Structures are given as C-alpha cells and as structure tokens.
C-alpha cells in the first residue's frame, strides 16, 4: 500500500499519461497549465500511483473553471472590440476632448454677459464626448460601428495566405461564409500554430507580423482598414453596448447641461 507501481498491467496507458504530464503538468513544459505549486504536487503525486482519470479531477475542475470564468469572458470582450488599441485610445481621447471643450465653453458662457440660454450649446459636446467615451471603454469605435465593421487584426494585415475578400462580403453574402470557413482561413495564416494535443506551445511572438506591426506608423494603426463583422451574435452585443452608451450619455449630458444652465451669471467677461 502507498508504494509507487510501474507495472503496465496495473497501470494501463502509463506511456500516454507520461506524455500528458510532460506536456501539461511539469514546470516549464510546452503547454504548462496554470496550477499552483501545491495543486501541481498533489496531482503529480496521484499520477505516480495510478493512471485512472480520477487522478486528474483537480486539474479538470480548475481548467473548466478557468475556461468558464476567465478565458471565455475575456474572449467575448475581445471579440466585441471593433477597433485596435491605438484606435480605441484615439476615440477615447477624442471623447475626453469633447467633454473638456464642453466644460470650457460652459465656463466661458457663465463668466460672460451672454444669455444663459446659450449654455445649451454645451449639450451636444457633452453627449458626443460621453457617447464615444463610454463605448470606447468597452473597446468599441462608434464611427465604424455605424456600418457594423471592425478594424483588421494585426495578423490579418500582413497575411499572405488569407484572402479577406470573403470576410468583407457584407450582410447580403454573409450566409455564404460559415464559421468553419473563417476558422480554416485564419488557421492557414498561422503557420506556426499546432492544434495537436501534444503540439508546441503555440506562441506567436516569433511570427513575422509581430515585428511588421510594431514598425507600422501610429497613424496607419489608428486608421487601418476595416471589414464587415460576420458574426451576428457579435453585432447584437455591439448594438447593445452602443445603445447603452447612448442612454448613459443622454442622462449625464442632460444633468450636466441643466447644472450649467442653472448656475448664476457671473458677468466677469
């Protein structure tokens, strides 16, 4: 009892289990799972004595929890974004600039002899600023969202194997391009990716597009090409976020405009 057993009779699939350990459980392995040292030691200790799938119960539960609680939500948030990071930052800063302009205009009108009704002109500045700012916080560019488009991903901009004409067919041709077709085309563009169970670590840092995109001018990153958003579920989520940004922008803009209009006249300038 408690002794390590190496017999292939009592431990079937030992060679396969050893491959799993070397690829997923050993520190520094090609596809090392994000386990704590305590959990890793417990699993490895259990696998020394048995190859029964129950020895991997802890790993299964942790991987499933990570997929459901982290990976999947993060993927959804990433898929919803229709702009790259430079464009989203540009739009967000534009929203801040509109809000600052509204505050400056309101302050000047309060200090001036102009009628307080002129202060209503701060409303469109507030609304535009908060509208694009709230949407940009979720990674959306309202401008390209109006046509349900998204900016090209960095690897799509420098791919030689993927034809993007099918991606940009628009809503009338959407049914002709399935999810499997898109996945197949993208997979062909990632030559270094292995989908094998015991494949490589699938790191993209060595790929050519990484350096090419890094050297690309900031202006071209912001105003890069865009293509039609094929997935209807993504478009629905984007529409929901944009409607929410409209609502929040309207509420905040009305309150701030009412405050600016209600302030007494200073008659300084």
UniProtKB/TrEMBL annotation:
Keyword presence, Repeat: no
InterPro entries given for it? RGS_sf, RGS_subdomain_2
- Does the keyword field hold Transmembrane helix? yes
Q: Which UniProt keywords apply?
A: Membrane, Transmembrane, Transmembrane helix
What Gene3D superfamilies is this protein classified in?
A: Regulator of G-protein Signalling 4, domain 2
Q: Which domain of life is it from?
A: Eukaryota
What are the transmembrane regions?
95-114, 120-144, 247-266
Query: Coiled-coil ranges per the record?
Result: none
Query: What is the protein name stated in its UniProt record?
Result: RGS domain-containing protein
């Amino acid at each position: 009892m408690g002794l390590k057993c190496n017999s292939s009779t009592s431990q079937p699939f030992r060679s396969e289990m050893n491959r799993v350990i070397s690829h997923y459980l050993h520190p520094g392995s090609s596809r090392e799972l994000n386990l704590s040292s305590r959990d890793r030691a417990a699993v490895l200790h259990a696998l020394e004595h048995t190859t029964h799938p129950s020895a991997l119960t802890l790993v299964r539960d942790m991987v499933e929890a990570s997929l459901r609680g982290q990976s999947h939500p993060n993927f959804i948030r990433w898929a919803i974004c229709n702009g790259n990071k430079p464009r989203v930052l540009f739009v967000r800063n534009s929203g801040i600039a509109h809000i600052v302009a509204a505050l400056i205009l309101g302050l000047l009108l309060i200090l001036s002899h102009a009628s307080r009704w002129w202060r209503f002109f701060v409303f469109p500045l507030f609304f535009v600023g908060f509208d694009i700012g709230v949407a940009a916080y979720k990674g959306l560019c309202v401008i390209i969202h109006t046509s349900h488009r998204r900016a090209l991903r960095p690897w799509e901009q420098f791919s030689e194997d993927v034809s993007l004409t099918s991606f940009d067919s628009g809503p009338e041709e959407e049914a002709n391009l399935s999810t499997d077709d898109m996945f197949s085309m993208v997979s062909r563009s990632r030559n270094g990716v292995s989908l094998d169970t015991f494949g490589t670590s699938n790191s993209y840092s060595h790929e050519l597009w990484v350096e090419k995109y890094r050297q690309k001018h900031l202006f071209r990153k912001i105003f890069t090409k865009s293509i039609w958003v094929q997935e209807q579920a993504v478009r629905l989520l984007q529409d929901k976020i944009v409607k929410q940004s409209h609502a929040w922008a309207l509420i905040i803009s009305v309150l701030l405009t009412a405050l600016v209009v209600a302030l007494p006249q200073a008659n300084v300038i």
